[in-house]
Amino acid sequence: MSMLRNLATSLINSREERIVTTLPKAKELRPFVERAITLSCRARSLEGAQVVHLRRQAAGFFHAGNMQQVALTGKRGQLRLPRTAGVAALKRLFDELGERYKDRPGGYTRILKLGTREGDNAELAIIELVDNPRELEALENARKRAKHTPAKKKKSGDARVAKASSQAKVEEADSAAANEPVEAAENRASDSAEDLETPESPAVEDEEK
Q1: What is the pLDDT of residues 70-97, one digit of tens each?
Q2: Which residue, 43, 41, 5, 16, is CA-closest to 127?
Q3: Which residues are within 8 A (CB) of 92 and not within 5 positions of it... i.e. 6 or more apart?
């Protein structure tokens, strides 16, 4: 029981909301800590003495806090003893986790296997709280990537449409030139030939005379 209380306290107080332990310990810890989280979820819909009763029940899942609130004897102005991890875990359980999982019917933790450990060949596992900030951030980034991907495809599709329209215009111009009347083409050719002719020099005219 003391080992489960230590693991539950470490899991609740963990900054990343996950701890690494052996697989049998993680399997034993999962229902143990989920019962404490269920008490905090039930407290969200209650008031007064009922909430105090649930907090006292949940305190049994952690080690008792430090009750010495007087200053240490022997030195004036010395700070009070710090609160223990069990008190901090109970406070976070009812202030934060109870609000997070108030609409969740169960399944507050997840177990991930890590393989075996060198030395004693024990099976390691990660037990973590679901819907943690790291997981929510990863989901948000994936949602943003999925949102921007169709926009890129749309831009490439617009470019393909513009390219196809330009090719169609070129083909239309070529077909119009091919269907032009023969007389207009001959007139244009004769005009270009006249433009290429150069006047005769004065020396040539004197020889002819």
Answers
A1: 545 445 565 555 668 888 899 999 999 9
A2: 16
A3: 12, 13
97 touches 40 (CB < 8 A): yes
Distance, in Å, from the CA atom of 19 to the CA atom of 30, rounded to the nearest integer, reads: 12
Q: Which residues contact 59 (CB under 8 A, 6 or more apart)?
A: 65, 86, 90
Q: Is the pLDDT of residue 112 over 60?
A: yes
CA distance 197 to 174: 30
Mean pLDDT of all residues in 4-24: 93
**Range 40-74 burial, b when 16+ CB lie within 10 A, else e:** bbbbeeeeeeebeebbeebbebbbeeeeeeeeeee
Torsion of CA 59, 60, 65, 67, to 10 degrees: 90
pLDDT score of 135: 84
Read off φ and ψ for residue 73, nearest 5 degrees. Answer: -80, 150
Instruction: Say which DSSP state 86 is in.
Output: H
Correct CATH for 2-68+80-130 of 3.90.1030.10, 3.40.50.150, 3.40.50.720, 3.30.1360.20: 3.90.1030.10
* % of the chain exceeding 90 in pLDDT: 40
